[in-house]
Structure prediction request, 504 residues.
Amino acid sequence: MAVDLRLVLPGTTAAPLHGLAGSRAIEAQACARAGDFTLMQRAGTDAARLALARWPHARRVWVACGPGNNGGDGLVMARCLHQLGRQVTVTHLSGRGTVPADAQRALAQAVQAGVTFGDAPAPGAVDLAVDALLGLGQDRPPGEAVLALIDALHACQAPILALDLPTGLAADSGQTLGEHGVRASATLSLLTLKPGLFTADGRDHAGEIWWSTLGATLDGAAPDALLLGADEARRLPPRPHAGHKGAFGDLWVLGGAAGMQGAAVLAARAALAAGAGRVYLATLADTAVHALPGAPAALMHRDTHALRQPERLAAATVVAGCGGGSDMGAELPAPIRHAARLVLDADALNAVAAEPALATALVARGHAARPTVLTPHPLEAARLLDSSTRAVQADRLAAARALARRFGAVVVLKGSGSVIATPEGPPWINATGNARLASAGTGDVLAGWLGGRWAALGDATDAAARAAREAVWRHGLAADRAGPHVLIADSLIEAMLASTADAA
Prediction:
């Protein structure tokens, strides 16, 4: 029996993530050590254990098994549940002589144990349905027979447990393969955790995510990505008792064109809340700070001309783009060239995408090792890559890495399972957050909070990436702890402050 079966709690669990190729390599090593069928036995046994623990009152179980080893895992599970007194029915897609040896052995044992085989049950006839159709082996849209069983799983009107991966979900990218895939109530990821479970369509399709290592050791296996956990996100130094505002950095928010000053105010408020020592607001609209709704008294207003002076930028953190509008590009050359720390968001990213001179300057900034954080949503990332939103979403990890390498920057690719990438090393995937953040201004809050954390960290080692990870994690955590309604940006800052106090 496997020794490790755990619930992966979003925002709490930190873990390595391995895609299709990496998981295959680890599987081969584990099979060489323990034996192929032993690993299948552990997988099926752990699936049965999870079903009994998670749905203890489920008496009637239907297991839809594919022709490969994922189906073999399901057959072992079915036999275990049958032997424990559950009413189990298996629908098995045997294919045409393509069943692997271990899956054939699992099939023979299930038959010998007296497991019932039959067609998909009628709606309402089972208490738990199990997706053991394709698992890790899927790399193309499901065929007609599998699609019919996907529809039958959804028609059951029962919870669905997916083994390893929901059928129709790509392990590497979290994209749905084909027209539709299984939307599981829970997924038991076997041996490794896959990146696709946590980004793009993954969270909607996987449900609760459980993990069994099947007793194997993953040490030494290079991950394709890392799941961001609470310990990593919280790993920021405490403020020294004798600290003063000058010790926590000057931050400038550059943006707020006419009619969009609220975005800049939100970013500035978030920067103050996150810990920046002094926050200056340079709006493109000629409006005094005290006349802006929601602007804290602690904000200091400056003309944008002040940010064209290199000496002001030499030690400053600049958050540029929030509500900047079409005039944003004209204000970017000096911050790109001289700012000690630079966060580009929203209209600043659009300006870089539209003006080759700004893109060239940003690349030069990266080559000069001046730290930058870019915070695009998928459309902004597509513009920067001269691509499409569809292409970015098809492989979010690759898109974030491409941007990080092109500009020598830390990149936060926002969305379901935000990706934090650096020019070197594996990217991080954040599992906190939900669609309550899908409202105007929440991105401005994220950019400002990130800048405020970074300003307070100053030039500490890996400060840009650390500030990005903490900001993204806490931004999502605030949404996870919110009520059932949309979290508006004005409330988000207070929610992030509350999560800082609760989770510090």
